[in-house]
Amino acid sequence: MNLLHAAGRAMTGVPYIKLGYDAATAPGMRVDAAAPLLDKLPLPVDNETVVRANGAVQALGGALISAGVAPRWAAAGVLASLVPTTFAGHAFWDFDDPAMRGQQRIQFLKNLAMAGGLVTIIAAGKK
């Protein structure tokens, strides 16, 4: 295995482990941020459960990516959870205040870069 490839996978997975764990164990304000999107969907569970489950998917997926266990599948799962997370949590276009809009745009672009890392893992496969 290429050491650089393994290091890149590990560095990609670690933020999902930490941030996913935080969302799964203490969803807090994430539930309010997700509500405008989740309330439009006919879900059989409450918003907090969805946020916690999404965090668990990210934490588990991040751990699998970092460990090199089924990294393509793990990256696909994390990517599937990251897209709605990004749109629900960092909708910069909804903010009138320039400072808040700018802060949310930065977070949106950060998530876009993280998604790019996941796409790279999906495309590269396990090496």
From TrEMBL:
InterPro entries: DoxX. Keywords: Membrane, Transmembrane, Transmembrane helix. It comes from the Bacteria. It is found in: Membrane. One of its GO terms (cellular component) is membrane. Its main location: membrane. It is a multi-pass membrane protein. This is Putative membrane protein YphA (DoxX/SURF4 family). It comes from Gordonia humi. The lineage of its organism: Bacteria, Bacillati, Actinomycetota, Actinomycetes, Mycobacteriales.
